[in-house]
Amino acid sequence: MTPVRQNIVDEELAKMIASDFQPFSIVEDKGFRSFIQALNPMYVPPSRKTLTQKIIPRLYDREHASLQARVKEATAVCLTTDCWTSRTTTSFVSVTCHFIENYNTVACLLDCFEFSDRHTSENLAGELLRVAKEWDIENKVACCVSDNAANITKAIKLLKWTHHPCLAHTINLMVRDALKVMKPTLDKVKGMVEFFHKSTRATEKLKSTQRQMDMPELRLKQDCVTRWNSTLYMLKRVLESKDAVISTLALINAHMDALDQEEWEALQETCTVLEPFEQVTVEISSESYVTSSKMLLLCRGLQKITAYNQTQVTKRKVTELVTALSTSMDRKFHRMEYNTVLSESTILDPRFKRLAFNDNCAVDEALQRVTAAAARCDLSSQPAQPPGGQEGEEGARAPEVEPQMSAVWRLFDARATEDIARRNPSADAMLEVRSYLEEPLIPRTADPLSWWESKASVYPRLVKVMARRLCIVATSVPSERIFSKTGQIITERRNRINPSKLRHLVFLNANLP
Fold first, then answer.
1. How far is CA 243 from the centre of its chain?
2. How far apart are CA 241 and CA 236, in angstroms?
3. What is the pLDDT of residues 243-260, one digit of tens each?
4. 59-62: which pairs have CB atoms within 8 A and are 24 or more residues apart?
5. What would the pLDDT profile of 422-478 be if each residue is shown by its tens digit?
6. Beta bridge partner(s), residue 84
7. Which segments of 135-286 does DSSP mark as H helices, in order?
8. Cβ neighbours, 10 Å, residue 469
9. Helices H, strands E: what count in the chain?
């Protein structure tokens, strides 16, 4: 095997380890080496030391430089950040970056690093600024999205970046707080579920009863204190197995507080009330890139559906739950239409525009800000250039040399140049905004960036403003998702991994094509 081929295969091995979170020691495993020998007897896998000290760092440096060149071209970026503590009580901070490149959304991980200092606002701000400077984007941050923790919120404000709270985290806080009115009933359900999880005899009896009743054998689900929808899943599963659960508890003579008929009916209504919140949570958490332009419609939709449910529920405790949710939403979503980020993002999304607003004054203010931003845009560069992109081969060619120009055309070109110079940026911006608003809405499932690409030459100013708004995401889920992957690396059998090696692995896992 030639050295060139050896290096190529070594690199593919490193990519496999990073992508699949394989342990470095795999290259020393007897079974793996036998497998490699069977595939190609000429290939000699690198040692663990060579892999961790040469091959993976080299791959990391190359991917880092490649991604940095792309990020540098972005006209604006949105950052998300989150903190996490591993099973070894080591704290980590992740920072993801989102921008528009050639009219496509790009999401990437900038850094995931160990954070051993106190989690003060000043320390967090210092680390966020360090990452931004390393990637040369400290002056390009259109918004930074995080959870609602006071320290990270203040840290972002210290940097004078626009902060936006994660919608998923906000919904989690609202529903968790509202569910407190259902605590007595929920405690009974939790006790019931824990009983079945702790008792093998009870679990087997439940399965037997489910079979006898011709019901699917469903295991009861426990809830998680950090995820409100885990409570909904717990309630749904208990309701699905209601008859079998009641029969099993009676047969084994379990000593616990049983749910009465009123409470069972209240649980059913509770699930109906919480279902819209679950649908929104799943949508914004499962999609890889949820723009903030959706937030106004999603939040207004939740408020309207909850108001309707308030007229439909019949159980007193569920009525209290709906009232608590409505009050919380009124507080959290108060004057949301006047939020600069949300209102401008929504206006510039050709799927929504003014349709998401209830308040005309909020629309007018958002349009004034968008128009002013469009008027400030510098059109000295080519307006049709994709935001955050680079010119392709066609754009890179030198202009063809024209034959000697006649005096007539020289006169025309001079007058055309004078006409362009006399144009009023404010008037042009107003015309663009007015014309854009008159365009018909595109389908909700359509790609707004594809629409903007087709209209770039028509709205050269608005395209530049759009790039600073439609890059903003609705949640910090991208940063949280990094930690779910990091948790796969730091396991009980692999809890002493060097922080720099972890950093390389997580970066490559998130950013390798």
1. 40
2. 9
3. 999 999 998 888 888 899
4. 59/11, 59/14, 59/15, 59/18, 59/508, 60/504, 60/507, 60/508
5. 678 899 999 999 999 999 999 999 999 999 999 999 999 999 999 999 999 999 998
6. 92
7. 150-158, 167-178, 183-198, 200-212, 228-240, 242-251, 261-286
8. 27
9. 23, 5
